[in-house]
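Section 5.1 Outputs to date
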Amino acid sequence: MTASRFTTDAAILAALCLSLAWGCASAGRNRGAARPSRPPAPGMFGSQDLRDESNISLPPIQSVSHREPHHDIESQPAFDSSASLEQLVSFALANNPELQAAHSQAHAVQERIAQARSLEDPMLMASPALVPNETADGPMTFMLSASQKLPWFGKLALRGEVAAHDADAAWSELAAVELRVLEQVKRAYFELYFVDRAITVNRELEPKLEQLIQVAEAKYETGAIDTGLESVLRARNELAKLQIMLAELQRAREESLADLAQTLHVPRGISVDARPQYAATPLPASQEELVALLEHCQPELAARRSELDRDWAAEALAQRDYFPDVTGGFQWQAMGAQGLSPLATGSDSYYLTLGVNLPVYRHRISAAAREARYNAARSAQRYDGAWDELRAGVYKLHAQAAEHDRVLELLDSQLVPQSEKTFTLSMDAYRVGRVNFEQLIASYRELLEYRIDLYRRQAQREQAVAALERIVGCAITATPPEADLLPMPVVTSP
């Protein structure tokens, strides 16, 4: 090979290496650039598509101290005290950090699919000869080779399938987090509902109790036989106990507001007035209707099913390791013109290369396949366990809500109206001496207990419904199409 030709080949090689280096540097600089959005995948729950990336802005990655939160909650607007439950739910779904973290996690797992389906980077190798090897045809001065590893048929598709099932599980986990956030908002809201109503009841009864004290004091001062000093003191103690209850309710209100602020990711100083007209959420009469909804809607079951499908695909991928991967390539050898043979021409050499790995360690491959089968069995058992736990939760919470309905009917139609009437009649009768002080105090305590219990059970009933909707995975009044029910997994023992 002449000196000018060698110079030309070296220049081509240098240009090729520079272009590769420039491409790597450009990829590094553009790593944080916006990527083209992919078409959104169909959502599982309602019309909202949790996978839509059109409105997502990726925050810059930076170190975050536990004393310096990434989101400045103090800069967020405070709530109007008249905010409805629907407004609180919408705000929580947009701002809850746990939900946002699950959303980012789902998108991160989604990006693994393209990585799993991609070939490995090709190899380019340059070998300049420091001391050329002399041959009859001329000295070997330089060698350049390029190769690409090609997995066995179906491996890339199965790797992509494993990653896709992982992504499906992540999206289902995101929906499960959303359901938990919804329940947390409703629990805090209805706890506020109970506390506010209980405070109102205590403040309404406080003047009546003060009036009772005045009557007792008047009767004691006039020397009435049925009222002694102990009756006056007991009446004053009842007023003190009422004030203690008000203090406890105020503390409970502050705790509920703190729980709500945590879920909404807002400053502690929010103000919510949870005293709307009570309207009970309709409860299906049959528990089996809710079980059917559970099969159709519950994202945790969908996540377990995706994990099972992933493990089945992983087993099929492990079976492919019994077959070799193929590495194909091209090689160029530059030859010098001054060969040992008088017939040397200095012609360059070109080669096609083909290589395979030898899967001779069958025990390792068999162990990987058995591991995948055990993982599939574990996922099926986790599905069964989740199904049993969720179904038991449906039965328990439906029974709780049905009990609250029966008791609320008795409280609202009989016990509260009758106790109010009894207390009013007892006050009038006590003034004229037809009932004693113990009977009057008993009627007051009964009225307080029944009215407080009415609002407590209303709140607990709606909290049970909120937990039931989280377990079912959708509104308990929905009707699932039979064709969309999740099939039960079946896996053979490994």
